[in-house]
Write a structure and sequence with these properties.
Length: 492
């Protein structure tokens, strides 16, 4: 009974607050009515040839396809070089490598390289070539979201279901409420023309609510805290958070597309329900046979690996057609995969390095090319950016810490859970790019949210070292190892 009352107070009341904000915001209209700010071109054609063909003595020009391929290869080389270099620098100062790779993406965009060397930037990243780069990024993101779902393990929740559910849901609803409330002052000036307040506010709330599960897991691994109680609680919360937040995001994207008239309502609602139910039942049973074949053969054959990838791609195609975005389908396909550790490790060994080393830096760079910090050109814009950052931190860090403490977690550990859950990293950038693609986020707000993602991710390790220093981490590690030995002894 106490747990139910606690859940209703910490989750139910903020939910009612979100409903109230949406009712108030429905009466607002954007201050501008012109066309939405232009985004970076997604054209996939090659640049048109200049002038007419010359005389026979003129040297033959390379074909447009060869020029496009050369530019794309140069782009990939520059991105990999910059991201690896900055990743190493950031690791040297105690930050996760992904923070350096995110910063590299910003440096390669108009906010730095385009400002410092505009001609070189235009030559390296011509607008006509960005469609090809975006296509590679989308393929990489589908594979990445499949891996995120694959690494979600129900064993994280063993013995911690109550704490994980309450803390995770509060860590979603608190920033969601604050994000929708922040949409009230931001909507008139920062919403794209023609976007309904409900779509704008719901998306802003969802973007505030996300946690970067992969980055969080790597921070815990680097600090050797996976086996500690605080690490286990945080992983459990992040696992629940990921599933819940992506379901919310799928709903928000569907609402935005339905309001825009792009997708029929019946197809989105009924089709999504049928598809998710089918994946959770029939899909699970079919994939269990794949796991059985894997165990019998003792290796992940090329045919089995191809079958796994086809499931991920098919799921992504279906959810894109339904209007809830391809990335949700990729995530769902990974989440329902068998969680046998040998099976998961075999898939990770095939895919993870390619995604982390190649595709994610390309995505960071493409995000950087879309980010124009120069749009924050006056004090009011920077004040709005500061408000976005403060609301994100207060909702995620504060909500997680208070909820964990309400579940009887000591204050130091509760604060540590809040700090770790405030890590947004790559997942935030994925959500922001979705918002820009479906037209619910303006380029100026996109830039503010990218800055917020960088700040909240960068602050995680310094705050963690301050609130939960090495002596406490070592004590937690020893306690976790002792508990694991006790469990092993009872099992034997």
């Amino acid at each position: 009974m106490r747990a139910t009352i606690l859940y209703l107070l910490l989750v139910g009341l903020p939910f009612l607050g979100v409903v109230g904000v949406l009712r108030i915001g429905a009466r607002l209209t954007p201050a501008h009515s012109g066309a939405a700010p232009a985004e970076i071109s997604r054209a996939t054609g090659a640049p048109a040839a200049a002038g007419r063909a010359g005389s026979r003595s003129e040297p033959a020009r390379p074909s447009p396809a060869i020029e496009t391929t050369l530019v794309l290869l140069l782009q990939i080389g520059a991105i990999l070089l910059t991201s690896r270099a900055l990743g190493r620098i950031f690791r040297a100062i105690g930050q996760p490598q992904v923070v350096g790779e995110m910063a590299a993406g910003i440096l390669l965009g108009p906010s730095f390289l385009g400002w410092l060397a505009p001609r070189f930037s235009a030559a390296l990243f011509p607008a006509a070539s960005l469609g090809f780069l975006n296509t590679l990024c989308q393929v990489g993101l589908v594979l990445f979201m499949f891996l995120v779902g694959l690494e979600l393990d129900p064993r994280f929740l063993e013995g911690r279901g109550h704490i994980a559910v309450v803390t995770s849901h509060v860590s979603i609803i608190a920033p969601f409420l604050l994000g929708t409330a922040l949409a009230l002052p931001l909507y008139p000036n920062l919403a794209p023309a023609g976007v309904a307040f409900s779509s704008f506010a719901l998306f802003l709330g969802a973007a505030m609510s996300i946690t970067a599960f992969p980055v969080l897991a790597r921070i815990l691994a680097e600090r050797r805290l996976q086996q500690s109680s605080v690490g286990a609680v945080t992983l459990a919360c992040a696992a629940v958070d990921d599933v819940t937040a992506w379901c919310i995001l799928a709903l928000v994207v569907a609402i935005a597309r339905v309001e825009g008239g792009a997708i029929p309502v019946a197809r989105t609602l009924a089709g999504s329900a049928v598809f998710v139910a089918s994946m959770m039942t029939l899909g699970r049973r079919a994939l269990a046979r794949v796991d059985t074949i894997f165990r019998r053969r003792g290796t992940l054959t090329n045919d089995l690996f191809a079958a796994v990838l086809l499931v991920a791609l098919a799921s992504a195609c279906v959810t894109e057609w339904l209007g809830i975005h391809a990335l949700f389908g990729a995530f769902l396909s990974g989440a329902i995969m068998p969680k046998d550790r040998a099976f998961v490790r075999a898939i990770l060994a095939r895919v993870e390095d390619l995604v982390v080393v190649l595709f994610l830096p390309l995505f960071f760079a493409f995000t950087g090319l879309r980010t124009r910090i120069a749009l924050l050109s006056n004090a009011s814009m920077w004040l709005a950016c500061a408000a976005v950052i403060l609301v994100a931190i207060a909702g995620k860090l504060g909500g997680s810490a208070i909820a964990a403490r309400a579940c009887s977690v000591p204050w130091r550990e509760a604060a540590t859970v809040g700090i770790l859950m405030n890590t947004r990293g790559l997942m935030e950038l994925v959500i922001l790019n979705i918002g820009l693609e479906i037209g619910v986020v303006s380029p100026a707000l996109f830039a503010m949210m990218v800055v917020m993602a960088l700040v909240t991710t960068f602050m995680t390790t310094p705050l963690l070292d301050w609130v939960y220093p090495e002596p406490f981490r070592e004590q937690a590690r020893q306690a976790g190892l002792a508990a694991a030995r006790d469990v092993a002894g009872e099992a034997s």
